[in-house]
Fold 4-aminobutyrate aminotransferase.
Amino acid sequence: MASLLRSAGRVRPALARSIARPVSRVAPIALSRQYASPAAGAFFPDEPTAPTVKTQIPGPKSQAAIERLSKVFDTRSLNMMADYGQSYGNYIADLDGNVLLDVYAQIASIPVGYNNPTLQLAATSPEMASALINRPALGNFPQHDWADILETGILSVAPKGLDQVFTGQTGSDANELAYKAAFMWKRQQQRGGAHVDFTDHEISSSMTNESPGAPELSILSFTSAFHGRLFGSLSTTRSKPIHKLDIPAFDWPQAPFPSLKYPLDQFAAENAAEEQRCLEETEHLITTWRAPPAAVVVEPIQSEGGDNHASPKFFNGLRELTKKHDILFIVDEVQTGVGATGKFWAHEHWNLSSPPDMVTFSKKAQTAGYYYGNNDLRPNKPYRQFNTWMGDPARAILFRAIIQEIKRLNLVQSTAVTGNYLFDGLKQLAEHYPKEIQNLRGKGQGTFIAWDSPRRDEVLKKAKSVGVNIGGSGEKAVRLRPMLVFQQHHADLLLERLEQIFKA
């Protein structure tokens, strides 16, 4: 046995090297590329210069693959059947040789391009292999370098004032965990502090789902909000009935989110009055709802609900209300976070007087969780905020590589500049095609841009036929969610293809 162990030890370095070495079958196009250089003028200098459309989408090979998949997996929400081995940079490929400029990016979750070489290196490292095959139950058996992974990755980009993190699996999970933290914080506060133990009545009533062990508290969210599809997060989701039908829900309040008129500069007075109305109604709900809110949760831009915006003044007003009534302010940055709005975190646009209490994240981070700074948000006992994995070191390692790439290429600033350029181009298109682009919004918000279209679904379908993959939100919004490596030449191509659709 000892000789076997010694032999195993001798082969480990070779095994590690073989794991770290990229395998060409994984991504044949990407692995032949070298690092993009900012000085080269393009982050992926050898990515396609234009889309290629060879067949209808889906083409015959994709149709056959979809038919096969549909026998074992629900394909009714399928957008397109992708070939990720042939996708690169800002372009997504399918099985039929179609290559599309992708400005939807897996519902805003691809940050630095398909098959990015920096991420390839991280993904094929011995460190990643260990994290994948030895996935630790982090609450019980954290790996020895977990603090280093967090400090050099997730926490290196923590929102101002928030220096701790609880990691999770998905955006829905991140919000659920934040809600739990809010409830435990509020009950600890009501009980007199974390040092005060539970009563026998609290302990017994919790097992029958009754108060006081299962307290009558709530989370306040907003009309058209989307915070996830798990039970707690779904009770704060208000975007579409299809998400909520047949699912029992908590009796939690929803406040009105401002419905702004565009162009903003032409309706300044009306929009200010609308935001004030929404703040007043929010305060009314905070003070009168039968299950008092422990927290308010809000998206900087309501993404799934139709790309709805509000002004920094509105969000500052929310922050003041939460402080006034001693409840928590949770900012859901699952879709807006990690540079998409021209700031690393969208709430940085607000210049808040004090940081949010928690900021949830996922999507472009490729991992999930919530940031916080107040030690009182730690539960008073172990195992209260707990699950088997409590996150994933492999995904945290990937986020660290994403952060490195964002910093290396200055992608947040690039996104801010490109977003302004794209918005100006869309504004010009809207002047020529006012029926096609209505309520254009997202100025100064990076590439987080949207508009309303009376024929939205038709526009999305036609976009594929001219080589662009675009997404929608709400009932009529066309939303752009390009990657952070989207540049001005991509914007020119997008504008050109949109004009083709509008002219037709």
